[in-house]
Write a structure and sequence with these properties.
The complex is a heterodimer of chains A (472) and B (441).
Chain A lengths: L2 H12 L5 E17 L2 E19 L2 E7 L4 H17 L15 E5 L11 H15 L6 E19 L4 E19 L2 E12 L4 H5 L1 H18 L6 E7 L1 H13 L4 H4 L31 E3 L22 E5 L2 E2 L6 H6 L8 E2 L8 E2 L3 E4 L6 H6 L3 E5 L2 E6 L5 E6 L2 E5 L2 E5 L4 E5 H6 L1 E15 L8 E17 L1
Parallel strand pairs in A: 4-6, 8-15, 14-22
Antiparallel strand pairs in A: 1-2, 1-5, 2-3, 5-6, 6-7, 8-22, 9-10, 9-14, 10-11, 12-13, 15-18, 16-17, 17-20, 18-19, 21-22
Helix pairs in contact in A: 1-2, 3-5
Chain B lengths: L2 H16 L3 E17 L2 E19 L2 E8 L4 H14 L31 H16 L4 E17 L4 E18 L2 E9 L7 H14 L4 E2 L3 E7 L1 H11 L5 H5 L20 E3 L21 E5 L2 E2 L6 H6 L18 E3 L6 H7 L2 E15 L4 E14 L2 E7 L2 E5 H6 L1 E13 L3 E18 L3
Parallel strand pairs in B: 7-15, 8-13, 12-18
Antiparallel strand pairs in B: 1-2, 1-4, 2-3, 4-5, 5-6, 8-18, 9-10, 9-12, 10-11, 13-14, 14-15, 14-16, 16-18, 17-18
Helix pairs in contact in B: 1-2, 3-4
The chains are: A alpha+beta (472), B alpha+beta (441).
Chain lengths: 472, 441
């Protein structure tokens, strides 16, 4: 990374009489290995670096990027971005919410450094996982593991005087398995993610978790029973709580979506100006508080400053069941007359920063796990999910259980095969009548943007109990 | 030999000197431009210039890869890659890469797409066309995307060539009311005949018909799928023919070669044809690409292969490398004998679905999944659209749906949209029997 070229690009932009310009440079050291059915398919190792410029001029935005580090190329991309900004000819001009300039340098410490962890160690880790998993007496007919790490250095400067440098180590893993018993297949996948070093592996317990998944699938095939469709109580485990928080709270609270910027891709939101839902509208019971917080140390979605140079902080999206605070960047904040809350993220130098979640979770309550079940006459405990989706206004959603159990008179009974809740955001969060103290988190990749940008995020929360919802 | 091809060859030679068994270097100079719009205005225009060489290397069946930007630090990068191979683990299934010299077709890439003079005009033309159909208060959003790539490939095993790849794509979603929308796309490899207004008209027409939607009703229906929705279905069936998907059991086609998987009327191909967004002349091993018949008159004929997966399956490469993972380029469902009107007349009570998103599987091997129809959702009675619907979900099985195709139109459209209708395809309207529709409770 050549910071002088980035500074040169910013100076060249300023000479173009623009309203605002920023330059963001990235240098990433990436390693990834893929193991399929016990065979190492390939090991990829690369260093990538480049920079982008974003220009605000005459009320339009232009963006251009390159990975050629020359002054000539810098001038070229600045000129393209300026031309693009002016080409927009918008009737309502884009402005950015005012923010103070920042000078900062932040780094995430590592206990076991990624750069000191050899390819052999990484291969060995996944090989051992594969060996253990296939020696447990479960018929795993197919499996695939992906293991990756990145060391990303970023440099951000803008025409308001901000200068921010950062260094972010991140590691992630993904496991997919298919178990076959009595000729019947069931599949599961699990994702792991961490910002920091290889100490992540001590927390992940990859082998234990994937073995648990294999045993769950076998048990579901052998002992799982269907559920008679009817209204019943549903206890969601942290994984299900987390995906519901992400899909039916985090996404509809993205202000760019609320304002229509994603209308052709990820869609709009059930929350919109002059609609039935807005800030202050009740969406769930008073037990429902959902936070998006980038500042959780070592979380997969961790950052200290966003990609517009705004200091990160927790955002209380739904607070005590009420719509409380949207996720903003500077553009959406200006449109809605507020300040950015630091939700602008870009996944690489060749992508614009857009409004994103970081770590979205339901806040814990005061019940222990046993209390969550004890007065359930009959219902389902959906501990994890397989298929899921939600409509593009983020209201009509569906979660299908992967690990689930029948609850009768407060006790967990047999596994339930693929129970389904298909309901609305309002019904889901309005049915919550109990929240546990116990909290767990899952790593995920959040999809959004055009071109697409998969963002590392965390989802999670406590067990939550939904009273009298329709399960089939 | 061009200077870029020579530099690409230099990387291959360096790796061979170090002792690599097989090396492939592929250099891409890409100029990509995208204009995003919403609320009838341009939000941002983006340009990204990409200078990259993908390097693949094998040594004693250890397979490694890297990326070199703008021919920087070649010696260091290649040495690092070879050192990685030395400490990596043998892949006993690795079957090598293509050997020999090949001739390639001439690329028909369109130089005009390297730097489109005024992309905003295309966007405004599409918006105006949508407004004309759905009314002046129509609210539209979407993208205009262009690409121009110069591709140079050198393999230590013989293949060497240049390719030039271009594409232009306009996608527009128009809202006539808050919950009434339509989506249209226009896709091509060249600017010739490219008509942004056509996409706008389609989006506007569906949006107009979709006004005042009622909550849909659960049940099993005969369904007519719009080509854009069919693009999403082909995006399920096509990639499941990749040998890699089959090997990890993320496919409904495992152990079904030679078996009937669809009615006689269904013939499915993969071809990076000259009209396609994915047009190309060679794959990532330098093998000339070709048309492959995946399903012939309902019978599964082949999986998609690179040289290595072909060896495992005791067959020949289909020209679909991906060096690790064979991949489809552009799916075609052969035309049928019905007109769109005839298809509607066939439906006594059914649905017409125009687009979908968020397709997720419970189990790729069995094919159980659901997806959420969006934009125009219509109830058909007596062959005519009777009502606009909303808030439904298609919850069914991918293999069963393939088997339940009962009609295919003569008319076809080249479609692609975001990550949903992907890879690009040539899609007709299809009529399908007995599709399960669910809704939230």
């Amino acid at each position: 990374m050549d910071k002088d070229i980035a500074d040169f690009a910013l100076n060249h932009a300023m000479s173009n009489k623009v309203d605002y310009a920023e330059v963001r440079a990235h240098r990433g050291d990436y390693q990834e290995l893929v193991m399929k059915n016990g065979v190492l398919d390939a090991y990829i190792s690369l260093v990538d670096s480049g920079f982008c410029v974003r220009i605000l001029a005459e009320g339009g935005i232009g963006f251009a990027s390159t990975n050629k580090w020359t002054k000539e190329e810098a001038k070229t991309i600045v000129d393209i971005a300026c031309k693009f900004a002016r080409m927009a000819k918008r009737k309502d001009k884009i402005t950015f919410a005012e923010e103070k300039s920042v000078k900062a340098n932040w780094r995430v410490p590592q206990k076991k450094k990624i750069e000191d962890t050899s390819p052999e160690t990484r291969i060995e880790t996944i090989t051992e996982l594969d060996k253990f998993l296939t020696s447990q007496g479960v018929n795993i007919a197919a499996r695939m593991f992906d293991f990756e790490s990145s060391l990303t250095e970023k440099y951000f400067v803008n025409t308001e005087g901000s200068v921010i440098s950062s260094h972010i180590p991140r590691i992630g893993a993904y496991g997919f398995i298919m178990v076959v018993e009595n000729g019947k297949p069931e599949q599961a996948y699990k994702q792991f993610g961490y910002v920091g070093g290889f100490e992540a592996l001590d927390q992940w317990k990859l082998t234990e978790q994937m073995t648990h998944e294999a045993n769950v699938l076998r048990k579901v095939i052998k002992e799982g029973k269907g559920v008679k469709p009817m209204k019943m109580d549903l206890v969601c485990g942290p994984e299900v709580t987390g995906i519901a928080a992400h899909e039916s709270c985090g996404h509809p609270m993205e202000a760019d979506r609320i304002l229509g910027r994603e209308m052709s891709q990820a869609g709009r939101s059930f929350i919109y100006p002059n609609g039935s839902f807005w800030l202050g509208t009740r969406i769930g019971t008073a037990l429902v508080t959902i936070v998006d917080d980038p500042t959780v140390k070592n979380s997969y979605g961790y950052y200290e400053y966003d990609d517009e140079g705004i200091k990160a902080r927790p955002r209380y999206l739904y607070k005590n069941g009420v719509i409380n605070e949207f996720l903003h960047n500077r553009e959406t904040a200006a449109k809605l007359g507020t300040r950015s809350n630091g939700a602008s993220r870009a996944m690489n130098y060749d992508r614009e920063a857009i409004v994103r979640m970081a770590n979205t979770f339901v806040q814990p309550g005061d019940m222990n796990e046993e209390e969550m079940f004890e007065d359930v006459k009959q219902g389902v405990y959906m501990r994890s999910f397989t298929e899921w989706n939600i409509d593009d206004k983020r209201f009509n959603q569906r979660y299908v259980g992967r690990e689930a159990y029948w609850i009768e008179k407060g006790e967990l009974k047999h596994p339930v095969a693929r129970p389904v809740i298909e309901t609305t955001t309002q019904i889901f969060w309005s049915a919550v009548d109990a929240v546990s103290k116990k909290v767990e988190y899952e790593a995920a990749s959040c999809g959004k943007g055009d071109p697409s940008q998969g963002a590392p995020v965390l989802t999670g929360g406590p067990l939550i109990r939904l009273r009298e919802v329709y399960v089939k | 030999m061009s200077e870029t091809l020579a530099k690409t060859e230099e990387i291959v030679k360096k790796a061979k000197t170090l002792g690599a068994d097989e090396v492939i270097a592929k250099t891409t100079f890409g100029r990509y431009r995208k204009t995003r719009f919403s609320n009838n205005q341009i939000d941002i225009s983006v340009a990204w210039n990409d200078y990259a060489t993908d390097v693949f290397l094998s040594w004693k069946k250890r397979v490694v890869g890297t990326l070199i930007r703008n021919f920087q630090n070649i010696d260091e990068s290649v040495k690092r890659l070879f050192n990685l191979a030395e400490v990596s683990k043998e892949n006993p299934q690795y079957g090598g890469v293509a050997k020999g010299k090949f001739g390639y077709k001439k690329s028909n890439a369109d130089k005009a797409l390297e730097n489109l003079e005024n992309p905003a005009e295309y966007v405004f033309e599409a918006i105006e066309a949508a407004k004309k159909e759905a009314g002046s208060d129509t609210n539209a959003g979407g993208i205009l995307f262009t690409k121009f790539e110069d591709v140079y490939l050198v393999s230590s095993e013989g293949p060497m060539g240049e390719d030039h790849r271009s594409a232009i794509e306009l996608s527009i979603r128009a809202f006539s009311q808050r919950e009434s929308s339509g989506h249209g796309v226009e896709c091509s490899s060249t600017i010739k005949g490219f008509d942004p207004a056509k996409a706008g008209r389609k989006a506007g027409e569906i949006a107009r018909q979709a006004k005042n939607p009622k909550a849909g009703v659960e049940g099993r229906y005969d369904v007519i799928f719009e080509p854009l929705f069919v693009g999403s279905l082909l995006g399920i069936w096509g990639p499941m023919t990749s040998a890699y998907s089959v090997m990890i059991q993320q496919s409904i086609f495992v152990n079904k070669l030679g078996q009937k998987v669809a009615p006689d009327t269904v013939t499915l191909r993969d071809t990076p044809a000259s009209y396609s967004l994915a047009s190309k002349v060679f794959d990532d091993e330098g093998v000339p690409v070709k048309e492959n018949v995946l399903i012939n008159k309902g019978v599964l004929k082949t999986y998609l292969h690179n040289t290595s997966t072909a060896k495992i399956f005791k067959t020949e490469t289909t020209g679909n490398a991906g060096l690790v993972m064979p991949t489809p380029w552009n799916i075609e469902l052969d035309e049928g004998d019905m007109s769109r009107e005839e298809m509607f007349r066939e439906v006594k009570r059914g649905l017409y679905l125009t687009n979908t998103w968020y397709t997720r599987f419970q189990n790729y091997a069995t094919g159980d999944f659901s997806t959420i129809p969006r934009d125009g959702i219509f109830l058909i009675e007596g062959g005519e659209i009777k009502q606009s619907w909303k808030d439904i979900r298609l919850s069914d099985n991918a293999l069963k749906m393939l088997n339940n195709i009962s009609g295919i139109s003569k008319e076809r459209q080249h479609v692609h949209w975001w990550g949903e209708a992907d890879p690009p395809s040539l899609s007709p309207y299809i009529l399908m029997k007995d599709v399960q529709i669910t809704r939230p409770k």
